[in-house]
């Protein structure tokens, strides 16, 4: 069985893949946190696409951290046999505030 590489065109759905992301939260209470993330394997949806679940912690900053649990949006084909997912969620409240995290994860093989 040949494994798909990061530069290979892969049509359709690729099982057992995940996505990483490196992002920052929105500014709240005068600071941001870095958010380093790796998703779960894909969760197929009834429309033939898939989403990913993720949970974790943002990087400790300003004397505290926040947790998050979220699902991505569906797969978005970006060409060259790859796709990404949009995410938009809020962290838990800590130290009297919470942060919004939104963006696009890193591309992974597959068009669905």
How would you sum up this structure, described in words?
The protein has one domain (20-109). It is built from no helices and ten strands. The chain is mainly β and 112 residues long. The two termini are 21 Å apart. The model has no long low-confidence stretch (mean pLDDT 91). Strands 7, 8, 9 and 10 form a four-stranded antiparallel beta sheet that branches. The protein has a two-stranded antiparallel sheet with strand order 1-2. A two-stranded antiparallel sheet has the order 3-4.
Measure the end-to-end span. Answer: 21 Å
Counting DSSP H or I runs of 4 or more residues, the number of helices is: 0
State which percent range the strand residues make up.
Answer: 35-45%
- Portion of residues within helices: under 10%
Number of domains: 1
- Largest pleated sheet: 4 strands, antiparallel
**Subunit arrangement of the protein:** single chain
Identify low-pLDDT runs: none
Assign an overall shape. Answer: elongated
Q: Strand pairing plus helix content: what structural class? A: mainly beta
């Amino acid at each position: 069985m040949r494994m798909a590489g990061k530069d290979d065109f892969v049509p359709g759905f690729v099982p057992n893949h995940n996505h990483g992301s490196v992002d920052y939260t929105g500014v709240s209470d005068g600071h941001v946190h870095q958010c380093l993330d790796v998703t779960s394997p894909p969760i197929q949806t009834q429309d033939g696409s898939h989403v990913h679940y993720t949970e974790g912690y943002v990087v400790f900053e300003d004397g505290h951290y926040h947790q998050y649990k979220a699902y991505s949006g569906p797969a978005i084909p970006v060409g060259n046999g790859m796709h990404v997912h949009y995410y938009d969620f809020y962290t838990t409240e800590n130290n009297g505030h919470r942060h919004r995290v939104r963006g696009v994860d890193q591309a992974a093989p597959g068009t669905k």
